[in-house]
Amino acid sequence: MTTERRDAPPTAEGWYVLHDVRTIDWAAWDEASQRTRDRAIEEGIEFLQSVTAVEDADGGGSMVVSMLGHKGDLMIVHMRPTLAGLDELERRFERTALATFTDQIRSFVSVTEASGYSERGREFIEGDLDDDSGLARYMRSRLYPEIPEKEHVCFYPMDKRRDLEYNWYDLPFEERAEHMDAHGDIGREYAGRVTQMITGAIGMDDWEWGVTLYADDMVDVKDLLYEMRFDPSSSKFAEFGPFWIGRRFDPADLDALLAGEPLSTPWEGVSEHAEHDHPPATPEDAAEGHGHDESGHPEGSGDGDHPHGDTDEGDNERDDHPSASSGRPPTTDSWSEAIADIDEMDARLGKAGLYEGEDYTGRTYALVFETDRDAAELAGEVEGLASNFDHYDTHVTTAVRASGGHTYLASLWTTEDAAQTASGFLTDLDGIDTGARGWAGSGGADDASTSAPTGTDEDDDIRSQLAEQNIYAGQPHGEDVYALVVYSEADLDRLRPVVEDLRASFAGDDHVKTAVYDDPDGEIAAVVSLWEDRAAAQRASDDLESVPGVVRKAGEGDGFGTMGMFYTVKPAYREEFVETFGTVGEKLEAMEGHRETALLVNDDDANDMFIASQWDSRDDAMAFFRSEDFRETVQWGREILDDTPRHVFLA
Fold first, then answer.
1. Annotated catalytic, 156?
2. Where are the alpha helices (DSSP H) in 271-351?
């Protein structure tokens, strides 16, 4: 028998959690007067709606569950930053008229936990990870989880065995980490179907950990736990307590619960469930959330990378997104502006050396990054990520290719959500920042979920060509931007009040901005109005023509007019930006087909500028955008700009 003390994995803790399980005294309820019942329902709804809305400034979450079976009728789950917060909520409920009809038959007090069985998990706990890295965001999402929009809830407590034959705490650290890693392989197979929250309860409750599982189909929970029972981390080293299961419901349906009527979920009627059920957070996220840890998990559970115990999955561990692992602060639940949405993805993939029929088939959502890194070196780093991605049914392929003297990283998925999650991991790699995304393969262009521009075919063609040059063309935030521009010879004093009135009348979700831009070297100013919706922009066009002193609109006359290239410059670089524009302007004057180019400045913000150019033809303008001079200018601009440039083209 060894007397050697085993190493305990470091842990990080987040929110405290209370699972409050109640039975309802149905006999007392039936005997109560209608007035008493109405008061109980009113106070109960008021309390439950208040806590599920999470009015606490420091965050947290609450949910209400209708329990199935004899173990309880109602379960309220609270997550709050402090035990004092849980204490207050528990006492507040006891003071409601509803509480007089309930008995608290079971409770479980614990705290969300992440443990350091993996090397990356330990780096997070010890503060050695970049706060913006995918893994750091993922770990935070486990410590400060959001409650996913899944209908069913399963909760159970568990321990790690400590008997003579199988004592988890007597195993060497490395052996425990291996168990956790292997256990995570099972959980990853349920990514997207089962989401898990692991909480530590040592010193707080009779059991060591609590496991809360969320799923739309309880059979997925059954299958997951059944499979895990055969894994040594469960079969040899785990002890499980009683299971409580139920269905989440909207607090407003409390009267329906007490009347035995159908219940609705909290998100019903608010929006499409599928849209809120964020894709498995990162390849990893999803995986993990899913059950993974369930197994004996807990100890490991907290592992941020937990499902995988210590695996290098940590690298991918991500931010991702949501889905299952949704979390707070937000993980990758929106596209980075550095990843341009393009239409001609098949051509881009071909440029990177991947072709339909060989590397992918049918409708596929692709990410392509071009980098200066050595292809062999990058491939070595990507290998682990690709292996983890393979755990997901939505993954097609992730590969590094050297083509035409350039290095490309491509990642292909069957859904846009999965690709979005993967992007968080990929952009964590050194040298992987700007890139392109879009649908490829047969049927891709027809998919309703794509975010392809809705402008004219000619506009789309321009955007796709510019995207090939990594130039943002009208989609600064993943959506189209439609521009209206009129040029006026009126004094700024006359234009300002008119534009202020326009801004007030344009206020709405579709309106981006309307402003006066002055040409310091000319006598004509521009009034620019940007919109997210083409129809809204068209409706605003008549109002814009009311501007005094209008001499022309953008796009009028012969030739090809480009309006856009909006830049918000960091104040310290404004002078340098203007000087650089002067240099570029000199080169433009010497280019074939160039007519004129001016730099205009926002009358309200001297750091907000746009460049208006006029060319003989579109081909002449595109020749400039493909030039090395422009490429160098764009690259330089990324270092000094405060925001992504908005390039909007009017032909």
1. yes
2. 273-276, 287-289, 298-301, 345-351
